[in-house]
Protein: Regulator of G protein signaling-like protein
Amino acid sequence: MTLTSKNTITQTSSRLLRTSDDDQPHSRDLKDLFSALIVSLLPLEPHRVRFVKFEHTFLSEDAIRNLGNLKLTQSNRMPDPDNPTCSVTSTSTTTFSMSKDTARSLCQRFVDARFIEAADGKPDQIFAHRGGVWKPTSKGTTIFDWFCQKNGINHDQLFELRNLITGPLLYLERDPKTDKPHVDRATTEVVFCRMMGIDGRGKKGPLALARQESATGIRLTHERKIGGRTHHDTCTGLQISDWLRDKATCADLKEAINMASHFVHYNLIESVATDLAYMNQYVACKLFQPTHLAVYTLSQRGQDLIENSSSSRCSSQGKTDSSTSKGGVTESNRLKLEKILQDPTLRLLFRENLRSTYCEETLAFYEQADEFIQDAKTTLEGVKKGDKTADENANELLSQSHIIFNTFVAPGSPREVNINHQLRLSLSDRMTKAQAQDSTQADMLKEVTSLLESASNAVFKLMASDSIPKFLNNPAVEDQLVQAGVR
Structure:
Protein backbone atom coordinates (compact mmCIF):
# COMPACT_ATOMS: atom_id res chain seq x y z
CA MET A 1 0.00 0.00 0.00
CA THR A 2 1.23 3.51 -0.82
CA LEU A 3 0.88 6.12 1.90
CA THR A 4 1.39 9.81 1.28
CA SER A 5 2.14 12.11 4.20
CA LYS A 6 3.19 15.60 3.18
CA ASN A 7 6.40 14.97 1.25
CA THR A 8 6.91 11.29 2.07
CA ILE A 9 5.93 8.34 -0.10
CA THR A 10 6.18 4.92 1.53
CA GLN A 11 5.64 1.60 -0.22
CA THR A 12 5.62 -1.53 1.92
CA SER A 13 5.25 -5.20 1.12
CA SER A 14 5.82 -8.57 2.75
CA ARG A 15 7.41 -11.29 0.68
CA LEU A 16 7.59 -15.03 0.94
CA LEU A 17 10.94 -16.57 0.13
CA ARG A 18 10.77 -17.92 -3.41
CA THR A 19 11.89 -21.51 -3.80
CA SER A 20 12.83 -23.69 -6.75
CA ASP A 21 11.43 -27.11 -7.64
CA ASP A 22 13.74 -28.82 -5.14
CA ASP A 23 12.53 -26.49 -2.37
CA GLN A 24 15.73 -24.43 -2.31
CA PRO A 25 15.67 -20.61 -2.01
CA HIS A 26 16.09 -18.71 -5.26
CA SER A 27 19.65 -17.56 -5.75
CA ARG A 28 18.78 -13.86 -5.97
CA ASP A 29 16.66 -13.97 -2.82
CA LEU A 30 19.37 -15.90 -1.00
CA LYS A 31 21.99 -13.29 -1.88
CA ASP A 32 19.71 -10.38 -0.99
CA LEU A 33 18.75 -11.90 2.35
CA PHE A 34 22.36 -12.63 3.20
CA SER A 35 23.43 -9.11 2.30
CA ALA A 36 20.54 -7.54 4.21
CA LEU A 37 21.50 -9.68 7.21
CA ILE A 38 25.08 -8.42 7.10
CA VAL A 39 23.80 -4.84 6.89
CA SER A 40 21.70 -5.45 9.99
CA LEU A 41 24.74 -6.85 11.83
CA LEU A 42 27.10 -3.97 11.03
CA PRO A 43 29.52 -3.17 12.40
CA LEU A 44 30.96 -6.68 12.52
CA GLU A 45 32.96 -6.80 15.73
CA PRO A 46 35.75 -9.03 17.09
CA HIS A 47 34.73 -12.22 18.92
CA ARG A 48 36.80 -14.83 20.69
CA VAL A 49 36.93 -18.53 19.98
CA ARG A 50 39.01 -20.52 22.47
CA PHE A 51 40.92 -17.40 23.60
CA VAL A 52 41.71 -16.32 20.03
CA LYS A 53 40.14 -13.08 18.78
CA PHE A 54 38.75 -12.98 15.23
CA GLU A 55 37.92 -9.69 13.50
CA HIS A 56 34.77 -8.95 11.46
CA THR A 57 32.65 -11.72 12.96
CA PHE A 58 29.14 -12.26 14.32
CA LEU A 59 27.32 -14.73 16.57
CA SER A 60 24.82 -17.38 15.51
CA GLU A 61 22.13 -16.10 17.85
CA ASP A 62 22.45 -12.53 16.54
CA ALA A 63 22.02 -13.70 12.94
CA ILE A 64 18.98 -15.83 13.79
CA ARG A 65 17.37 -13.00 15.77
CA ASN A 66 17.87 -10.45 12.98
CA LEU A 67 16.58 -12.81 10.29
CA GLY A 68 13.38 -13.23 12.27
CA ASN A 69 12.19 -9.82 11.11
CA LEU A 70 14.44 -8.60 8.33
CA LYS A 71 13.68 -5.47 6.34
CA LEU A 72 15.08 -4.33 3.01
CA THR A 73 14.63 -0.57 2.76
CA GLN A 74 15.45 1.84 -0.06
CA SER A 75 14.99 5.60 0.14
CA ASN A 76 15.50 8.40 -2.34
CA ARG A 77 15.15 12.12 -1.85
CA MET A 78 14.25 13.97 -5.04
CA PRO A 79 12.73 17.26 -6.19
CA ASP A 80 8.95 17.39 -6.00
CA PRO A 81 7.69 17.19 -9.64
CA ASP A 82 4.88 19.62 -8.73
CA ASN A 83 7.08 22.04 -6.80
CA PRO A 84 10.83 21.99 -7.59
CA THR A 85 11.58 24.13 -4.53
CA CYS A 86 10.46 21.24 -2.29
CA SER A 87 11.67 17.67 -2.07
CA VAL A 88 9.96 14.30 -1.86
CA THR A 89 11.32 11.22 -0.11
CA SER A 90 10.33 7.91 -1.70
CA THR A 91 10.85 4.84 0.47
CA SER A 92 10.19 1.20 -0.37
CA THR A 93 10.40 -1.44 2.36
CA THR A 94 10.22 -5.20 1.92
CA THR A 95 9.83 -7.33 5.05
CA PHE A 96 10.78 -10.99 5.44
CA SER A 97 9.44 -12.77 8.52
CA MET A 98 10.43 -16.27 9.59
CA SER A 99 10.65 -18.57 12.59
CA LYS A 100 13.89 -19.31 14.42
CA ASP A 101 14.11 -22.76 12.85
CA THR A 102 13.64 -21.30 9.38
CA ALA A 103 16.24 -18.63 10.12
CA ARG A 104 18.73 -21.27 11.26
CA SER A 105 18.08 -23.32 8.11
CA LEU A 106 18.62 -20.23 6.01
CA CYS A 107 21.91 -19.53 7.78
CA GLN A 108 22.95 -23.09 6.96
CA ARG A 109 22.21 -22.26 3.33
CA PHE A 110 24.59 -19.31 3.65
CA VAL A 111 27.23 -21.74 4.89
CA ASP A 112 26.54 -24.19 2.05
CA ALA A 113 26.79 -21.35 -0.47
CA ARG A 114 30.17 -20.35 1.03
CA PHE A 115 28.91 -16.88 1.96
CA ILE A 116 30.09 -17.37 5.54
CA GLU A 117 32.45 -19.72 7.34
CA ALA A 118 33.35 -20.57 10.91
CA ALA A 119 35.72 -17.94 12.26
CA ASP A 120 38.23 -20.54 13.44
CA GLY A 121 38.14 -22.41 10.13
CA LYS A 122 36.91 -25.68 11.61
CA PRO A 123 35.87 -28.19 8.95
CA ASP A 124 32.54 -29.09 10.56
CA GLN A 125 30.46 -26.28 9.08
CA ILE A 126 27.15 -26.74 10.89
CA PHE A 127 25.24 -23.60 11.82
CA ALA A 128 23.98 -24.16 15.37
CA HIS A 129 21.36 -22.06 17.14
CA ARG A 130 23.85 -20.75 19.68
CA GLY A 131 27.54 -20.40 20.33
CA GLY A 132 28.86 -20.20 16.78
CA VAL A 133 31.18 -17.41 15.61
CA TRP A 134 31.06 -16.70 11.89
CA LYS A 135 32.69 -14.42 9.36
CA PRO A 136 31.95 -13.51 5.72
CA THR A 137 34.07 -15.25 3.11
CA SER A 138 35.64 -13.53 0.12
CA LYS A 139 32.66 -14.70 -1.93
CA GLY A 140 30.16 -13.48 0.65
CA THR A 141 31.91 -10.13 0.94
CA THR A 142 31.82 -9.69 -2.85
CA ILE A 143 28.09 -10.41 -2.95
CA PHE A 144 27.57 -8.03 -0.04
CA ASP A 145 29.62 -5.37 -1.85
CA TRP A 146 27.47 -5.78 -4.98
CA PHE A 147 24.37 -5.39 -2.82
CA CYS A 148 25.69 -2.21 -1.22
CA GLN A 149 26.52 -0.70 -4.60
CA LYS A 150 23.08 -1.66 -5.91
CA ASN A 151 21.26 -0.09 -2.98
CA GLY A 152 23.51 2.89 -2.31
CA ILE A 153 24.50 1.64 1.15
CA ASN A 154 27.46 3.34 2.79
CA HIS A 155 29.04 2.32 6.06
CA ASP A 156 32.35 3.13 7.70
CA GLN A 157 33.29 -0.57 7.80
CA LEU A 158 32.74 -1.27 4.10
CA PHE A 159 36.32 -0.40 3.17
CA GLU A 160 37.65 -2.80 5.81
CA LEU A 161 35.37 -5.60 4.63
CA ARG A 162 36.48 -5.17 1.02
CA ASN A 163 39.96 -6.18 2.15
CA LEU A 164 38.52 -9.66 2.76
CA ILE A 165 38.01 -10.11 -1.00
CA THR A 166 40.81 -12.30 -2.36
CA GLY A 167 39.85 -12.44 -6.03
CA PRO A 168 37.10 -12.04 -8.64
CA LEU A 169 33.80 -13.90 -8.38
CA LEU A 170 32.32 -15.51 -11.49
CA TYR A 171 28.62 -14.67 -11.83
CA LEU A 172 26.74 -17.67 -13.25
CA GLU A 173 23.72 -16.97 -15.42
CA ARG A 174 20.60 -18.87 -14.35
CA ASP A 175 17.41 -20.07 -15.98
CA PRO A 176 14.73 -17.59 -14.84
CA LYS A 177 12.13 -20.35 -14.42
CA THR A 178 14.12 -23.08 -12.67
CA ASP A 179 16.85 -20.88 -11.11
CA LYS A 180 19.41 -23.48 -12.17
CA PRO A 181 22.79 -22.35 -13.56
CA HIS A 182 23.13 -22.80 -17.31
CA VAL A 183 25.40 -25.73 -18.19
CA ASP A 184 25.34 -25.61 -21.98
CA ARG A 185 28.63 -26.33 -23.72
CA ALA A 186 29.66 -22.71 -24.32
CA THR A 187 28.92 -21.61 -20.74
CA THR A 188 30.70 -24.66 -19.33
CA GLU A 189 33.78 -23.88 -21.41
CA VAL A 190 33.86 -20.30 -20.11
CA VAL A 191 33.64 -21.51 -16.51
CA PHE A 192 36.31 -24.14 -17.18
CA CYS A 193 38.72 -21.57 -18.61
CA ARG A 194 38.19 -19.31 -15.59
CA MET A 195 38.89 -22.24 -13.30
CA MET A 196 42.14 -22.80 -15.16
CA GLY A 197 43.08 -19.19 -14.48
CA ILE A 198 42.03 -17.50 -17.71
CA ASP A 199 39.79 -14.76 -16.39
CA GLY A 200 38.39 -13.37 -19.63
CA ARG A 201 40.59 -10.29 -19.59
CA GLY A 202 43.86 -12.02 -20.44
CA LYS A 203 45.20 -11.73 -16.90
CA LYS A 204 46.76 -15.19 -17.09
CA GLY A 205 48.65 -16.91 -19.85
CA PRO A 206 48.69 -20.41 -21.32
CA LEU A 207 48.66 -23.81 -19.68
CA ALA A 208 52.12 -23.51 -18.17
CA LEU A 209 50.87 -20.79 -15.85
CA ALA A 210 47.90 -22.91 -14.77
CA ARG A 211 50.40 -25.13 -13.00
CA GLN A 212 51.30 -22.27 -10.67
CA GLU A 213 49.44 -20.96 -7.65
CA SER A 214 46.88 -18.39 -8.75
CA ALA A 215 44.30 -16.23 -7.06
CA THR A 216 41.91 -16.80 -9.95
CA GLY A 217 42.42 -20.44 -10.92
CA ILE A 218 43.21 -23.79 -9.36
CA ARG A 219 46.71 -25.22 -9.17
CA LEU A 220 47.46 -28.22 -11.37
CA THR A 221 49.96 -30.86 -10.33
CA HIS A 222 52.40 -31.33 -13.18
CA GLU A 223 53.10 -34.99 -12.39
CA ARG A 224 51.13 -37.38 -10.18
CA LYS A 225 51.68 -41.14 -9.85
CA ILE A 226 48.52 -43.23 -9.56
CA GLY A 227 48.51 -47.02 -9.77
CA GLY A 228 52.03 -47.17 -11.13
CA ARG A 229 51.32 -44.67 -13.90
CA THR A 230 52.37 -41.03 -14.12
CA HIS A 231 49.66 -38.55 -15.05
CA HIS A 232 50.28 -34.95 -16.02
CA ASP A 233 48.31 -31.78 -15.23
CA THR A 234 46.00 -33.25 -12.61
CA CYS A 235 43.87 -31.96 -9.76
CA THR A 236 41.48 -33.50 -7.27
CA GLY A 237 37.72 -33.40 -7.33
CA LEU A 238 37.87 -31.48 -4.06
CA GLN A 239 39.97 -28.74 -5.68
CA ILE A 240 37.48 -28.38 -8.52
CA SER A 241 34.38 -28.33 -6.30
CA ASP A 242 36.01 -25.92 -3.84
CA TRP A 243 36.89 -23.51 -6.65
CA LEU A 244 33.36 -23.61 -8.06
CA ARG A 245 31.87 -22.98 -4.62
CA ASP A 246 34.37 -20.28 -3.61
CA LYS A 247 35.01 -18.46 -6.90
CA ALA A 248 31.67 -18.82 -8.71
CA THR A 249 28.10 -18.19 -7.63
CA CYS A 250 27.21 -21.86 -7.13
CA ALA A 251 24.63 -21.97 -4.36
CA ASP A 252 25.71 -25.32 -2.91
CA LEU A 253 27.77 -28.47 -3.45
CA LYS A 254 25.07 -29.96 -5.68
CA GLU A 255 25.39 -27.14 -8.21
CA ALA A 256 29.19 -27.42 -8.14
CA ILE A 257 29.01 -31.16 -8.81
CA ASN A 258 26.60 -30.58 -11.68
CA MET A 259 28.92 -28.04 -13.30
CA ALA A 260 32.00 -30.22 -12.79
CA SER A 261 30.15 -33.24 -14.20
CA HIS A 262 29.66 -31.23 -17.37
CA PHE A 263 33.43 -30.64 -17.51
CA VAL A 264 33.68 -34.42 -17.84
CA HIS A 265 30.64 -34.67 -20.12
CA TYR A 266 32.09 -32.14 -22.58
CA ASN A 267 35.48 -33.87 -22.47
CA LEU A 268 37.39 -31.04 -20.80
CA ILE A 269 38.73 -33.25 -18.01
CA GLU A 270 39.13 -37.01 -17.62
CA SER A 271 39.01 -39.18 -14.53
CA VAL A 272 42.23 -40.98 -13.60
CA ALA A 273 41.18 -42.04 -10.09
CA THR A 274 37.60 -42.63 -8.93
CA ASP A 275 36.32 -42.41 -5.37
CA LEU A 276 34.23 -45.58 -5.48
CA ALA A 277 32.95 -45.23 -1.92
CA TYR A 278 31.57 -41.75 -2.61
CA MET A 279 30.14 -42.83 -5.96
CA ASN A 280 28.37 -45.80 -4.38
CA GLN A 281 26.92 -43.57 -1.67
CA TYR A 282 25.79 -40.90 -4.14
CA VAL A 283 24.73 -42.62 -7.34
CA ALA A 284 24.29 -39.30 -9.15
CA CYS A 285 28.04 -38.68 -8.90
CA LYS A 286 29.26 -41.21 -11.43
CA LEU A 287 31.01 -38.67 -13.64
CA PHE A 288 32.48 -36.53 -10.88
CA GLN A 289 33.21 -36.96 -7.17
CA PRO A 290 34.10 -33.85 -5.12
CA THR A 291 36.70 -35.55 -2.90
CA HIS A 292 40.47 -35.60 -2.49
CA LEU A 293 40.55 -39.26 -3.60
CA ALA A 294 39.02 -38.52 -7.00
CA VAL A 295 41.67 -37.24 -9.42
CA TYR A 296 41.16 -35.66 -12.84
CA THR A 297 43.50 -34.72 -15.65
CA LEU A 298 43.08 -32.27 -18.48
CA SER A 299 41.88 -33.93 -21.65
CA GLN A 300 43.48 -33.03 -24.95
CA ARG A 301 40.41 -30.98 -25.75
CA GLY A 302 40.70 -29.16 -22.42
CA GLN A 303 44.35 -28.36 -23.08
CA ASP A 304 43.57 -27.13 -26.58
CA LEU A 305 40.77 -24.92 -25.26
CA ILE A 306 43.08 -23.31 -22.70
CA GLU A 307 45.89 -22.73 -25.19
CA ASN A 308 43.54 -21.38 -27.86
CA SER A 309 41.75 -19.09 -25.42
CA SER A 310 45.05 -17.55 -24.42
CA SER A 311 46.64 -17.30 -27.88
CA SER A 312 43.51 -15.92 -29.56
CA ARG A 313 43.47 -12.96 -27.18
CA CYS A 314 47.10 -12.20 -27.89
CA SER A 315 46.63 -12.37 -31.67
CA SER A 316 43.49 -10.22 -31.64
CA GLN A 317 44.84 -7.36 -29.51
CA GLY A 318 44.28 -4.08 -31.28
CA LYS A 319 41.76 -5.42 -33.79
CA THR A 320 38.50 -3.58 -34.20
CA ASP A 321 35.32 -4.39 -36.01
CA SER A 322 34.74 -1.62 -38.51
CA SER A 323 31.06 -2.45 -38.73
CA THR A 324 30.50 -1.67 -35.05
CA SER A 325 33.21 0.78 -34.02
CA LYS A 326 31.33 3.78 -35.38
CA GLY A 327 28.57 3.49 -32.79
CA GLY A 328 24.96 4.44 -33.44
CA VAL A 329 21.80 2.40 -32.97
CA THR A 330 21.92 0.27 -36.10
CA GLU A 331 19.52 -2.56 -36.79
CA SER A 332 22.50 -4.89 -36.71
CA ASN A 333 23.39 -3.80 -33.18
CA ARG A 334 19.80 -4.29 -32.04
CA LEU A 335 19.73 -7.83 -33.39
CA LYS A 336 23.11 -8.61 -31.87
CA LEU A 337 22.01 -7.33 -28.48
CA GLU A 338 18.86 -9.44 -28.63
CA LYS A 339 20.93 -12.51 -29.44
CA ILE A 340 23.40 -11.75 -26.66
CA LEU A 341 20.63 -11.37 -24.09
CA GLN A 342 19.07 -14.67 -25.15
CA ASP A 343 22.35 -16.60 -25.02
CA PRO A 344 23.43 -17.42 -21.42
CA THR A 345 27.13 -17.57 -22.30
CA LEU A 346 27.19 -14.27 -24.16
CA ARG A 347 25.02 -12.68 -21.47
CA LEU A 348 27.53 -13.77 -18.81
CA LEU A 349 30.40 -12.22 -20.77
CA PHE A 350 28.39 -9.11 -21.63
CA ARG A 351 27.51 -8.59 -17.96
CA GLU A 352 31.17 -8.85 -17.01
CA ASN A 353 32.11 -6.39 -19.74
CA LEU A 354 29.52 -3.92 -18.48
CA ARG A 355 30.78 -4.33 -14.92
CA SER A 356 34.35 -3.63 -16.01
CA THR A 357 33.19 -0.38 -17.65
CA TYR A 358 30.93 0.57 -14.71
CA CYS A 359 27.75 0.23 -16.78
CA GLU A 360 26.25 -2.93 -15.31
CA GLU A 361 23.20 -1.04 -14.04
CA THR A 362 21.85 -0.80 -17.60
CA LEU A 363 21.55 -4.58 -17.97
CA ALA A 364 20.32 -5.01 -14.39
CA PHE A 365 17.56 -2.46 -14.96
CA TYR A 366 16.59 -3.94 -18.31
CA GLU A 367 16.29 -7.44 -16.83
CA GLN A 368 14.30 -6.37 -13.78
CA ALA A 369 12.05 -4.07 -15.80
CA ASP A 370 11.44 -6.78 -18.40
CA GLU A 371 10.49 -9.30 -15.71
CA PHE A 372 8.18 -6.74 -14.11
CA ILE A 373 6.54 -5.84 -17.44
CA GLN A 374 5.81 -9.47 -18.29
CA ASP A 375 4.33 -10.14 -14.84
CA ALA A 376 2.30 -6.92 -14.95
CA LYS A 377 0.80 -7.73 -18.34
CA THR A 378 -0.16 -11.20 -17.10
CA THR A 379 -1.75 -9.67 -14.00
CA LEU A 380 -3.67 -7.08 -16.00
CA GLU A 381 -5.05 -9.85 -18.20
CA GLY A 382 -6.16 -11.59 -15.02
CA VAL A 383 -7.94 -8.44 -13.85
CA LYS A 384 -9.87 -8.31 -17.11
CA LYS A 385 -10.94 -11.93 -16.66
CA GLY A 386 -12.05 -11.31 -13.07
CA ASP A 387 -9.28 -13.32 -11.41
CA LYS A 388 -9.68 -12.85 -7.65
CA THR A 389 -5.93 -13.00 -6.98
CA ALA A 390 -5.12 -10.41 -9.64
CA ASP A 391 -5.77 -7.41 -7.37
CA GLU A 392 -3.41 -8.79 -4.74
CA ASN A 393 -0.80 -9.43 -7.43
CA ALA A 394 -1.27 -5.88 -8.71
CA ASN A 395 -0.54 -4.46 -5.26
CA GLU A 396 2.62 -6.56 -4.96
CA LEU A 397 3.76 -5.50 -8.43
CA LEU A 398 3.24 -1.85 -7.54
CA SER A 399 5.53 -2.43 -4.56
CA GLN A 400 8.10 -3.95 -6.89
CA SER A 401 7.82 -0.98 -9.23
CA HIS A 402 8.79 1.34 -6.37
CA ILE A 403 11.87 -0.79 -5.68
CA ILE A 404 12.88 -0.60 -9.35
CA PHE A 405 12.19 3.13 -9.37
CA ASN A 406 14.20 3.81 -6.20
CA THR A 407 17.09 1.67 -7.44
CA PHE A 408 17.43 2.76 -11.06
CA VAL A 409 15.23 5.69 -12.05
CA ALA A 410 14.78 8.18 -9.21
CA PRO A 411 17.10 11.19 -9.44
CA GLY A 412 20.21 10.37 -7.44
CA SER A 413 19.33 6.67 -7.14
CA PRO A 414 22.27 4.32 -6.44
CA ARG A 415 22.20 2.76 -9.93
CA GLU A 416 20.66 5.60 -11.89
CA VAL A 417 20.28 4.74 -15.57
CA ASN A 418 20.57 7.22 -18.39
CA ILE A 419 17.09 7.92 -19.76
CA ASN A 420 15.28 10.91 -21.23
CA HIS A 421 14.68 13.70 -18.71
CA GLN A 422 10.98 13.95 -19.54
CA LEU A 423 10.52 10.20 -19.11
CA ARG A 424 12.29 10.30 -15.74
CA LEU A 425 10.08 13.22 -14.73
CA SER A 426 6.94 11.32 -15.75
CA LEU A 427 7.98 8.29 -13.72
CA SER A 428 8.85 10.46 -10.73
CA ASP A 429 5.49 12.19 -10.99
CA ARG A 430 3.62 8.88 -11.09
CA MET A 431 5.60 7.28 -8.28
CA THR A 432 5.22 10.23 -5.93
CA LYS A 433 1.46 10.53 -6.30
CA ALA A 434 -1.14 8.67 -4.31
CA GLN A 435 -3.79 6.60 -6.02
CA ALA A 436 -6.57 8.79 -7.38
CA GLN A 437 -9.99 8.22 -5.88
CA ASP A 438 -11.54 7.37 -9.22
CA SER A 439 -8.79 4.92 -10.28
CA THR A 440 -8.04 1.32 -9.38
CA GLN A 441 -4.79 -0.45 -8.64
CA ALA A 442 -5.04 -1.98 -12.09
CA ASP A 443 -5.17 1.52 -13.60
CA MET A 444 -2.07 2.53 -11.66
CA LEU A 445 -0.27 -0.66 -12.65
CA LYS A 446 -1.12 -0.12 -16.30
CA GLU A 447 0.27 3.42 -16.20
CA VAL A 448 3.45 2.42 -14.35
CA THR A 449 3.99 -0.52 -16.70
CA SER A 450 3.71 1.72 -19.74
CA LEU A 451 6.27 4.16 -18.33
CA LEU A 452 8.71 1.42 -17.31
CA GLU A 453 8.34 -0.15 -20.74
CA SER A 454 9.34 3.16 -22.32
CA ALA A 455 12.32 3.38 -19.97
CA SER A 456 13.28 -0.21 -20.76
CA ASN A 457 13.20 0.50 -24.50
CA ALA A 458 15.37 3.58 -23.98
CA VAL A 459 17.95 1.58 -22.03
CA PHE A 460 17.92 -1.15 -24.68
CA LYS A 461 18.75 1.45 -27.34
CA LEU A 462 21.51 2.83 -25.13
CA MET A 463 23.11 -0.61 -24.74
CA ALA A 464 22.81 -1.26 -28.48
CA SER A 465 24.46 2.02 -29.43
CA ASP A 466 27.10 2.31 -26.72
CA SER A 467 27.82 -1.02 -25.01
CA ILE A 468 27.51 -3.45 -27.92
CA PRO A 469 30.28 -1.91 -30.08
CA LYS A 470 32.66 -1.99 -27.10
CA PHE A 471 31.73 -5.58 -26.29
CA LEU A 472 32.15 -6.78 -29.87
CA ASN A 473 35.62 -5.23 -30.01
CA ASN A 474 36.74 -6.94 -26.79
CA PRO A 475 39.42 -9.47 -27.82
CA ALA A 476 38.83 -11.55 -24.69
CA VAL A 477 35.43 -12.72 -25.98
CA GLU A 478 36.21 -13.00 -29.69
CA ASP A 479 36.03 -16.81 -29.80
CA GLN A 480 32.62 -16.97 -28.14
CA LEU A 481 31.23 -14.22 -30.38
CA VAL A 482 32.44 -15.98 -33.52
CA GLN A 483 31.09 -19.35 -32.38
CA ALA A 484 27.69 -17.81 -31.66
CA GLY A 485 27.61 -16.07 -35.03
CA VAL A 486 27.45 -12.60 -33.50
CA ARG A 487 30.74 -11.46 -34.98
Q: What stands out?
A: The chain has three domains: 23-163, 185-200+219-298, 333-477.
